[in-house]
């Protein structure tokens, strides 16, 4: 490792939106970085797919390479910053960089979710830093808080809004009563959603992030594919209207809870949130994470979950902390932020299936507008041990002879609710079961 | 320093509410601490005033001492945790502990505000950690965020609610229209306010905390006595009622802003906050800190600003991070969280006087209920370059022939507003100038 007072060489893998922001920060803020860390940094090289593409900022041609070996095999590179995204080839590049004794910063939720434990173990063995603040929550400093400031806590739960695309769409649907398809198209037009929006709207992106946060919080790996996910495409403007009447907003939440039996319950799905809760007030592309610990109680962090500048804040924060650590130690570099337990690759957290969830529910049905309908539905719910909390009949349509029935329940077992709702759907007086949404108090 | 794999000895100075929480965490969570840090910790001794006083948790008599030398001169003590509060003698104890090569954790806002730069410089010289997460914001991890995760940012401003006592009182006044004196008495009865509440209600406590946060954010010491403070005792229930009609809550804010000319503007005072802003929704004893940086944009951290458990979360987080650092390095201990610039004891931040502030204002006057009054007042304000935004006449009292006049202004210069308001107060038709409150958009 470079001795004190020499320049720290940093190479980037990926020079897209975030990579460009990091390159600009490294090149434009040299004085501030020197002041904050005690060391001078230099952008040594950046891995790109196409060296001829115009970029902001534009880099001298000599700094661009299409060959990862130029970075991974360069003994002068102290820190590799990976901003390519996706598991392959980024994951193996990170592994090779760490194996070569380089410090690593990554913004890659998928790699940290799939390979975090093994990469952290390798980093600990090689006595290098692996930091990943930008992998969940964008500019919100939640990763570092879980690893460092909140370390003394026994974390009980995380409830979060960690996908800006879905939150933008839900905010539009709630405020302007925009149908889902229109809100999605608008998000795509504004660049908030990709042309294939599946990862965002089906909760896959949030599951990767929740996997990263939950693993840090509970000190055990939580594989992303053990997380129950449910998308937002079934939500309709009337759900937001009825929810508001009941005193709730609808948000897509990523939730991980440590159960008393030692298992973890992790899930991503739309939920009704009381409108006076701070999570209900997270609007547009903003994100928020609520952490509940035995000592700290309930903490909420709110900020920008994506975007060039906010993500650059997280990546550069990691970079500067590594550079400062290099400046402060002549011996092996410190590992201030490596969670020792997660990196031990401890046993996977057992994850309870969604069937066993106990939750209150909101259900919306389209029924025949005639006497006795509610009695039949209530009978089925009662037989299934599901207690009704409220019933609202809405939007009677004389043309079709139907009405909307909105029912909320007291906490019930998910499997019981699903079974009962299938039976309800088979009633001749029920035209359709439109939606079932969990209620988070 | 103790080599790897040996027990880390921790001694406490102060064993009150927070000290008791830290002692309980050290004694009760040994397994979890070992798992999280890789090292075993031992509570070696605790400095108290009276060894015979009953305590929760109760400590073996041998662990208690009334003599600070027992801790400061003990070569086996690795970490000193100071929770006595106040500048003297805590400040000199901390200095001696650092000089003796011990790592130090403190919850002391006054010491960190008054002596932070010199103590941090000494810690850097001695290559030990000085961590102080609990000195501002209680259980909210804002100190570490400013030092670590947000390090890459050029921080532009901090706006915060960092005194739970005043926020509890203001919440009572707003919700139940309780007069100030009654809300204060209730806060005292519940243990949220001390018998002499001056430090809290006059903004002195918040100024110490803002001094700590501002110094970290702007990388220059901001002395607490350079911070303008204004208490909450002039607020009346009708101010909350009128503010609500205008769409605002009233909160006591601690604000530090980096001005374009390099100066800092730091102040603690009641302010009207738009009711849809998250700061307006911080209720009771909760605290919140909003940080605006060039990269991260606006981040808000919300949580418990005081109390035994929340403060223990912050203190023990610092302790565990030091212990983990010791476990990860055989050489000199790392200094991951020591802000190099603040510890250099750089030049004081120039602080603009409040006179030069540009702000919108809310003013409440008691006037004669007769024609032409507003014209006279508007004339004086207009002559003072103050543009009126709204006027509401309220609570006409036929008995005294008076009415309440509530005026809000567009942004104006504080000195101009103060001068004009003195002239308004001298009008024969003005019975009293009841309040002048700044508006924060």
Your description of this structure?
2 copies of one chain form a homodimer. Chain A is α/β, with parallel strands linked by helices. Chain A folds into 3 domains: 8-139 and 308-343, Rossmann fold (3-Layer(aba) Sandwich), CATH 3.40.50.720; 144-304, Dihydrodipicolinate Reductase, domain 2 (2-Layer Sandwich); 355-439, Alpha-Beta Plaits. In chain A, 36% of the residues lie in helices and 26% in strands. Chain A contains 15 helices and 17 strands. Chain A has helices at 17-28, 30-37, 69-72, 90-99, 109-126, 142-149, 164-176, 180-189, 198-201, 204-218, 237-245, 308-328, 340-343, 373-383, 414-425; strands at 8-13, 41-47, 64-65, 79-82, 103-106, 130-131, 155-161, 228-229, 248-258, 264-274, 286-293, 297-304, 358-368, 388-397, 402-409, 412-413, 430-439. In chain A, the strands form 2 sheets. In chain A, strands 7, 8, 9, 10, 11, 12, 13, 14, 15, 16 and 17 form an 11-stranded mixed beta sheet that branches. In chain A, helix 1 crosses helix 12 (308-328) and helix 4 (90-99) packs parallel to helix 5 (109-126). The longest helix of chain A has 21 residues, at 308-328. The termini of chain A are far apart. Chains A and B meet through helix 2, helix 6, strand 12 and helix 12 of A and helix 2, helix 6, strand 12 and helix 12 of B. Strand 12 of chain A pairs antiparallel with strand 12 (297-304) of chain B.
Q: Keywords for this structure?
A:
homodimer; 441 residues; alpha/beta; Dihydrodipicolinate Reductase, domain 2; Alpha-Beta Plaits; 3 domains; 11-stranded mixed sheet; 15 helices; 17 strands
